[in-house]
Amino acid sequence: MQLVIFFLLILTHTYADYPALKAVLSEKGLRDVSQMMAVWIQNKLKSTEIPDVRGGVDIGIGTVEYVISNMQVVQCSMSGPSMEFVKGIGVSVEVSQLSLAITGRWATQFGIIHDGGSVDLAVYNIKLKTLLGLGDEAGRLSITTISCSDEVGGVNIQFHGGASFFFQPFVSAFQGQISEMIHVRICPAIQQAISELEKNLQKIPVNIPVDQYIYLSILLTSSPAVTDQSFELDIKGEFYSNTSPSEPPFSASAFDVKYAENYMLSLAASEFLVNSAAYAYLSSEVLQINITDNMIPKSFPIHLNTSQFGAFIPQLLTLYPNMEMQVLLYASKTPLFSFSSGVIDVHVPVAAKFSVVKPDGMLVPLFRLDVFNSDCWII
Question: Which domain holds residue 77?
Answer without folding.
Answer: 30-203
